[in-house]
Write a structure and sequence with these properties.
Elements: H1 3-15, H2 25-31, H3 71-81, E1 94-103, E2 122-131, E3 146-154, E4 157-164, H4 177-184, H5 200-208, H6 213-219, E5 234-235, E6 240-243, E7 249-258, H7 267-276, H8 280-290, E8 296-305, E9 331-340, H9 345-350, E10 363-365, H10 369-385, H11 469-477, H12 480-495, H13 500-514, H14 516-526, E11 563-567, H15 574-586, E12 590-595, E13 601-602, E14 608-609, E15 613-614, E16 625-628, H16 632-639, H17 642-653, E17 657-661, H18 667-671, E18 679-682, H19 685-697, H20 705-708
Parallel strand pairs: 11-12, 11-16, 12-15, 16-17, 17-18
Antiparallel strand pairs: 1-2, 1-9, 2-3, 3-4, 5-7, 6-7, 6-10, 7-8, 8-9, 13-14
Helix pairs in contact: 4-5, 5-13, 6-11, 12-14, 13-14
This protein binds CIS-heme D hydroxychlorin gamma-spirolactone.
Residues 88-91, 94, 128, 130, 147, 149, 162-164, 169, 174, 177, 237, 319, 352, 354, 370, 373-374, 377-378, 381 line the site of CIS-heme D hydroxychlorin gamma-spirolactone (HDD).
Length: 713
């Protein structure tokens, strides 16, 4: 058995260590008979007939025509012809993983949801991360919102928390969702661009719809180019309710915080990755799980007592608003760990069907009009995407809790209901299945009995009317380099907009109302007249900055799981490589040795040295940092190798930590670079690691950014 298989096998086992799923493969197979393993099995048709020849169609003679009676060929080709299902309307590109959720304690004062009561209980989860705009085959690192959908397989039924990596949304009412999506999707005449929002229809729509201003500035920030799926925050976006056994309801906002910290790519890197490693995010997630660097997120809630619903400067029901953490801090509830990769992408990641309407007793909705519309949309879309109303029977969607009801038949029904009475009440089947009255635990679902006394109208509440204060709060909360990135992103995207009237409208009607400085810088970059003032009066708000919104404040205190490229050629000092690898391993970071080609190197001591890949095979954009060990011959070779020099310049330009050891310090002259907080050089590996690791821990050398602009990589 190979080492890789052992790791995969181990993580698979770890993922089943729950009261619900078994902790051995044998038990898993018993609970999940649909997981098919063909090892040692005969090749058969779908009717169970063993196949003798899978190479040749049945023909009249070896050079003659094929025969229609060849049921084996026809079955195979027919099935193949229907292999594709429609991709998701939005969020088509995604990656998924299994794991579990564990509560930190007993949260029964807050909710009667069973999975939040007992720290000993591990609730299985399946998570799917996604981009929004692009089709199934589009790039992972495009500028876009990321979906963050979690299915909790609780004992009381499935709870789906279908969120994003940003805490707000583009629109306030679900009826505008088709308009918004049609605008952001590629232009209808030529289906360009794939995966991005830098085009006329998107900016036409958002410049006409000021409620989108807050979410658009998030989408123009570094949050829209996350470093990895495991370095993203997640948000439930809407206000939900948690209800306890006494029937007390509180409003909550759900938050996922990655223990690995929240950080992003830089724009040039994101663009290059989209070509050099289209699968960058899904590969990173997959490999992290295979190497047992299990990604983790803390689930927390901001809690608002019912009587404080109207205490805010915005409406809790407005999904274009967040509650600053400085006003309502996050109460941690538990932790999610992803520790098992899917066995089959299609059966699990592609067929998983989320719906914000999948909730369990102890959780309830608010009247957010965006959420209310979503409650309808998801089930509706599954019906056409997954071919009928029985998608809940697909293995990945099946709740662990049993399900019995009077629903019958329809396409792809796989349950064989034994009873005679598919209706309720009945006497023929003894009245079964029966309702369960609500109870403190294990009761039937009961909606929170909110009192409603209102006119039936199509109208938006005036309390939804402030579209710019929180966009401004977000901009003001950014560090200077984050602000620069936002200005650059608006300038880049609007620069791709062909119609000048749209560019001008976004600058004058939206950006000038968020922040005049921002609007002026973007106007300047677009060659537009500088706006003199906004079109809407600035509202007075109590909070000017929310530090919790800046990623500068969300870094982890560790270099665990970070990836370092070691560049070497023949004659390298292998002792320096060993010392660096050892130091990285001690910190839980990973190293890959890269040579000019994939062929083994000859170290200075004459010994052969296997490399992990060539420098072209694993480009600098796939790493967090670069180390160049000494060894005169190796450094000489690298100094004359355009690929190696470009590698280092690119890492420098992307503000990554670089350590040059021994003779490698000479490369500073070749590259015409000066040392800085993250570009370190020295003889002793041990001494180098201190500054090198500190710089990796800071994620990027932001102080270098202005200088790095001049580097032509
Ligand atoms: Fe949505 C998919 C998140 C508004 C309609 N949405 C989808 C997915 C995520 C979100 C993460 C992918 C789930 C997966 O991985 O399979 N959507 C959101 C968030 C929203 C939001 C956080 C606002 C706060 N969505 C929204 C509205 C509507 C939809 C207002 C319709 C009225 N969303 C859909 C959909 C999708 C979907 C068309 C496509 C595939 C699917 O549902 O299963 O129904």
């Amino acid at each position: 058995m190979s080492t890789k298989k052992t790791a995969a096998e181990k993580s698979r086992l770890a993922g089943t260590d729950t009261p619900d799923r078994a902790n051995t493969n044998a038990k898993l197979d018993r609970l999940e008979p649909f997981r098919s393993d063909a090892t040692g099995q005969a090749l058969r048709t779908n009717q169970g007939v063993k196949i003798a020849d899978n190479q040749n169609t049945l023909k009249a003679g070896d050079r003659g025509p094929s025969l229609l009676e060849d049921f084996i060929m026809r079955e195979k080709i027919t099935h193949f012809d229907h292999e594709r299902i429609p991709e998701r309307i939005v969020h088509a590109r995604g990656a998924g993983a299994h794991g579990f959720f564990q509560s930190y304690g007993n949260h029964s004062a807050l909710t009667k949801a069973g999975f939040l009561q007992d720290p000993a209980k591990k609730t299985p989860v399946f998570v799917r991360f996604s981009t929004v705009q692009g089709p199934r085959g589009s790039g992972d690192t495009v500028r876009d919102v990321r979906g963050f959908a979690v299915k909790f397989f609780t004992e009381e039924g499935n709870f789906d928390l279908v969120g994003n990596n940003m805490p707000v949304f583009f629109i306030q009412d679900a009826v505008k969702f088709p308009d918004f999506v049609h605008a952001v999707k590629p232009e209808p005449h030529n289906e360009i661009p794939t995966g991005g929002s830098a085009h006329d229809t998107f900016w036409d729509f958002v410049s006409l719809v000021p409620e989108s201003a807050h979410m658009v500035i998030w989408a123009m920030s570094d949050r829209a180019i996350p470093k990895s799926l495991r370095s993203m925050q997640g948000f439930g976006v809407h206000t939900f309710r948690l209800v306890n056994a006494e029937g007390t309801s509180r409003f909550v906002k759900f938050h996922w915080r990655p223990t690995a910290g929240t950080c992003s790519l830089v724009w040039d890197e994101a663009q290059k990755l989209a070509g050099k490693d289209t699968d960058h995010h899904r590969r990173d997630l997959w490999e992290a799980i295979e190497t047992e660097d299990y990604p983790e997120w803390e689930l927390g809630v901001q809690i608002i007592e019912e009587q404080h619903e109207h205490d805010f400067e915005f409406d809790l029901l407005d999904p274009t608003k967040l509650i600053p953490e400085e006003i309502v801090p996050i109460t941690p509830l538990g932790k999610m760990t992803l520790n098992r990769n899917p066995d089959n992408f299609f059966a699990e990641t592609e067929q998983v069907a989320f719906c914000p309407g999948h909730i369990v007793p102890g959780i309830d909705f608010s009247n957010d009009p965006l959420l209310q519309g979503r409650l309808f949309s998801y089930t509706d879309t599954q019906i056409s995407r997954l071919g009928g109303p029985n998608f809940h029977e697909l293995p990945i969607n099946r709740p662990l809790a049993p399900f019995h009801n009077g629903q019958r038949d329809a396409q792809h029904r796989s349950t064989l209901d034994k009873g005679r009475a598919a209706y309720e009440p009945n006497s023929i089947d003894g009245g079964w299945p029966k309702e369960t009255p609500p109870a403190a635990q294990d009761g039937g679902f009961e909606s929170y009995p909110e009192r409603i006394d209102a006119n039936k109208i199509r109208q938006r509440s005036e309390s939804f009317g402030d579209h710019f204060s929180q966009a401004r709060l977000f901009f003001n909360s950014m560090s200077p380099h984050e602000q620069e990135h936002i200005i650059a992103a608006y300038s880049f995207e609007l620069g791709k907009v062909e119609r000048e009237a749209i560019r001008a409208r976004e600058v004058n009607d939206i950006l000038a109302n968020i922040d005049l400085g921002l609007a002026r810088r973007v106007a300047e970059n677009l060659g537009l007249p500088t706006p003199a003032k906004g079109t809407v009066a600035v509202r007075k708000t109590s909070l000017k900055r929310s530090p919790a919104l800046s990623q500068v404040n969300l870094l982890p205190d560790t270099i665990k799981t970070r990836k370092v490229a070691i560049l070497a050629a023949n004659g390298v000092d292998s002792a320096a490589i060993d010392a660096m690898k050892k130091a990285l391993k001690a910190e839980g970071a990973h190293a890959k040795l890269l040579g000019p080609t994939s062929a083994p190197l000859k170290a200075a001591n004459g010994k052969p040295l296997a490399v992990d890949a060539s420098m072209e095979g694993m480009p600098s954009v796939a790493f967090d940092a670069v180390f160049v060990p000494g060894g005169a011959a190796s450094v000489n070779a690298l100094g004359g190798d355009g690929v190696a020099l470009h590698y280092l310049l690119e890492a420098y330009k992307h503000l990554k930590a670089i350590a040059l050891q021994g003779e490698a310090e000479q490369l500073l002259d070749v590259l015409k670079l000066e040392k800085d907080a993250g570009l370190v050089a020295g003889k002793d590996v041990g001494a180098l690691t201190q500054a090198f690791f500190a710089a990796i821990g800071q994620h990027r050398v932001w102080a270098r950014e202005a200088k790095a602009k001049a580097v032509p990589a």
